[in-house]
């Protein structure tokens, strides 16, 4: 069967369910908008004990670097953090997913194991359906894109046969990477903490290695949150981290409810660390478990010799999109109680009513429930038919 026919059948089936919201027919999980509490998720050996994973992170998500994230949280001081770039023009860096198989952009994914798949597949399916609907259907000249997300299976064609899991027992009875899945596969796995996170774009190692691309799933995430992370997988970064964001939004990092504790921890460790460093340096924010890491105008990692690297975030000269799925809202779990009650003066992030006349004041930013027209335009520019 041709790829277009296969994808069309999958997309029609999923979008039909999305439109009718009739998920209760197949699974009780599918009827929910958010993931269940922690005790409803399987505590598997392959689940990561990481609580402070950046939403979209720009270093290779191999076991080594995920171990380092755990080490950072435990207070250890690793001397290597991994190195990567966004859409880099050289082999060892991040880039967009390539065209293969007749010009299609295939993004393969696998679930870590059967328990993970049973728990979170319904949410991934709904998030994929959201993107498929927003993009105008399957890849074609009419829809204007070439993207196909597909689960790794043992069948002869896309989405045919039984699923292949990311890790399986090897001949020694040890859980190891499944040799039947591709090196570029997106690994979907559970983390035993709230929220979701994903790597940005495609990372190609030389020589190839597995596990560079991950989507980490915790508790309490909505379908829109999953769709946001799929935006990262496609290569999108946070709109509110653009270098020109201060022209459009007002950001006050000291309004986060995690600010005082993070600053105290930082100064206890190093009295020279000030508010500006905590608020603008993603590596400092990451080290002291500060929410502001996801709001800095650069993304950070550490090079092979331990040198800090700050990667600028590019905007492609496009208009600032406050309605983007990749833009954070004013009201989050890390906003103060006053902000959540509607006191915009106490919110970390608000938008100007008129960027050309800031004296008119500010207003709240609400959470996007799906891709914006600007998001769709970005995807179709990046992966055009």
From TrEMBL:
Keywords: Signal. One of its GO terms (biological process) is proteolysis. Transmembrane segments: none annotated. The keyword Signal applies. Residues 1-19 form the signal peptide. One of its GO terms (molecular function) is zinc ion binding. It comes from the Eukaryota. InterPro entries: MetalloPept_cat_dom_sf, Peptidase_M12A, Peptidase_Metallo. The keyword tRNA-binding does not apply. Residues 93-275 form the Peptidase metallopeptidase domain. This is Peptidase metallopeptidase domain-containing protein. It comes from Amniculicola lignicola CBS 123094.
């Amino acid at each position: 069967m041709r790829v277009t026919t296969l994808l069309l059948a999958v997309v029609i089936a999923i979008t039909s369910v999305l439109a009718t919201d009739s998920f209760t027919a197949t699974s009780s999980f599918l009827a929910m908008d958010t993931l269940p509490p922690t005790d409803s998720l399987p505590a598997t050996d392959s689940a990561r004990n990481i609580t402070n994973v950046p939403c979209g992170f720009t270093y290779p998500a191999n076991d080594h670097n995920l171990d380092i994230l755990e080490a950072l949280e435990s207070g250890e001081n690793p001397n290597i953090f991994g190195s990567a770039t966004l859409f880099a023009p050289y082999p060892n860096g991040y880039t967009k997913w390539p065209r293969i198989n007749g010009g299609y952009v295939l993004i393969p994914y696998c679930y870590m194991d059967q328990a993970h798949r049973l728990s979170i597949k319904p949410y991934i399916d709904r998030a994929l359906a959201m993107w498929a609907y927003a993009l105008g259907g399957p890849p074609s000249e009419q829809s204007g894109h070439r993207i196909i997300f597909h689960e790794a299976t043992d069948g002869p064609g896309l989405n045919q046969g039984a699923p292949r899991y990311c890790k399986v027992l090897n001949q020694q009875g040890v859980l190891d990477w499944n040799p039947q899945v591709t090196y570029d596969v997106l690994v979907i796995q559970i983390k035993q903490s709230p929220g979701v996170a994903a790597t940005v774009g495609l990372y190609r190692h030389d020589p190839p290695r597995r596990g560079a691309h991950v989507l980490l799933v915790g508790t309490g995430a909505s379908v829109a949150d999953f769709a946001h992370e799929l935006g990262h997988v496609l290569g999108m970064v946070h709109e509110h981290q653009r270098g020109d964001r201060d022209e459009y939004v007002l950001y006050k990092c000291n309004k986060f409810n995690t600010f005082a504790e993070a600053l105290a921890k930082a100064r206890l460790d190093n009295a020279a660390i000030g508010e500006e460093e905590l608020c603008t340096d993603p590596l400092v924010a990451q080290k002291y478990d500060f929410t502001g890491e996801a709001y800095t105008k650069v993304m950070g990692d550490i090079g092979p010799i331990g040198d800090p690297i700050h990667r600028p975030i590019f905007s492609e000269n496009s208009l600032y999109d406050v309605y983007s799925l990749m833009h954070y809202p004013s009201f989050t779990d890390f906003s103060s109680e006053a902000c959540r009650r509607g006191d915009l003066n106490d919110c970390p992030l608000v938008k100007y009513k008129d960027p050309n006349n800031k004296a008119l004041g500010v207003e709240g930013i609400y959470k996007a429930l799906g891709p914006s027209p600007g998001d769709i335009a970005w995807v179709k520019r990046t992966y055009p038919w």
